[in-house]
Amino acid sequence: MTALRVVAGLAIVFVASYAAAQSGADRRRSGYQDMGEALQKMQDDDTANPGMLFVQLGSQAWSKPAGAADKSCADCHGAAASMKGAAVRYPAIPKGADVPMDLEGRINLCRTENQKAERLPPESRELLALEAYVAHQSRGMPVAPPVDPRLGAFRDQGAEIYRRRQGQLNLSCAICHDDNAGKKLAGVTIPEAHPTGYPIYRLEWQGLGSLKRRLRNCLVGIRAEAYAYDAPEYVMLELFLMDRARGMTFEAPGVRP
Amino acid sequence: MRALLVAVLAFIAPAAAAQQIVGDAIPASLTGQPGDAVRGRAIVANRSLGLCLLCHSGPISEERFQGDLAPTLAGAGSRWSVAQLRLRIVDGSRLNADTIMPPYYRTSGLQRVARNFEGKTVLSAAQVEDVVAYLSTLKD
Question: From the list B65, B117, B120, which residue is nearest A186 (CB)?
Fold first, then answer.
């Protein structure tokens, strides 16, 4: 009788602590989890994921010499495996620089400094292809922003932009992506805005696009003036979003509706 | 355009607003005329004009995709008078500073408005009146 009571008591304690552990569990959701099964399958299957075509294009661009230095990425970096972990670390402050850059900014720094070539234009096919190729090397890794005290001030500014109301509709990123994530904006489930899949193939675009392009879509949606493509605000927002997604699984090239 | 902007600013200015807003309502029509409920329904249903169904649901069955960020519009006309509805559309932040509902007839106090919308209200005075007229028919 007493034994039974002890067992029952233990069971209750166990259930309670299990529940507590669950409530402390990671509840963050990637946009992937908010998509229908068909799109999840498309992302998971390399032969169906349109982003993989850009990864292939990127592998060609990787070993193609360019610029006055007539060097390819491969000439300096060797195999693509050397890029494992790069995408989950960016934005970061490259050696010799004093402001953070995102991955495409870093790729363009190599273009100008090491290849002595022109910067690739934002959203151009070649830049997206290289970015997809580099990002793909980190697929499956946890998002891991660097510990660098110099980043703090930039990240804080990103957080401030994220919470600031803007545009004619007077909304902030946080209103949708923190306070109303999971709810329906018209027919669309509002995702938590984790940058884990970029560059993504978005069906609405019928093409690959960067995180910057996605952020511009949201700004235009609330009728705010989008920042210029080279504006530091995007990098600040990306720093904040990557930190917010720390530890989540990187999944580039993602597919999104 | 300029005249409209001046008119809107005058409306929003505290002194002018004190005359316009009475309690939680704006008793006088913004145009001096009653709105048209049929036109108002079309504005509410239009995703890029009224934008209402992005956040709200309502008795507009042909629009399949409706939001759930906000209370349903069904019954709005029994919950609120025309004058109360008008203030809620013009600038809900007068009633709830944290509201996420956009101010449909205000241009002040907004940050980084896109150039093509700068100085413009989301809806015109006549459109606000049409929307209010439609909402006031929603009794249940």
Answer: B65
pLDDT, mean of residues A79-88: 96
> Taking the model in full, what pTM does it have?
0.90
- A141 has a pLDDT exceeding 90: yes
Q: How many CB atoms lie within 10 A of CB B87?
A: 22
Contacts of A184 in chain B (CB under 8 A): 65-69
Residue type, A39: L
ipTM confidence score? 0.90
Q: Kindly list the structural domains of chain A, giving each domain's residue range(s) and its CATH number in brackets, ordered by start.
A: 29-257 (1.10.760.10)
Q: Tally Cβ neighbours within 10 Å of residue A139.
A: 17
Average pLDDT of the segment spanning A214-219: 98
Chain A residue with Cα closest to B68? A184
Whether chain A has a CB inside 8 Å of the CB on B10: the answer is no
Tell me the count of A-B CB pairs closer than 8 A. 68
Residue type, A152: G
Cα distance from B133 to chain A (closest Cα, Å)? 22
Q: How far is A113 from chain B (nearest CA, A)?
A: 35
Alpha-helical (H) ranges within A98-199 are 103-109, 125-136, 151-163, 173-174
For B111-138, the DSSP string reads -SB-GGGTT--SS-HHHHHHHHHHHHT-
pLDDT tens, position by position, B34-89: 999 999 999 999 999 999 999 999 999 999 999 999 999 999 999 999 999 999 99
Q: How far is B24 from chain A (nearest CA, A)?
A: 21
Q: Are the beta carbons of A222 and A175 closer than 8 angstroms?
A: no
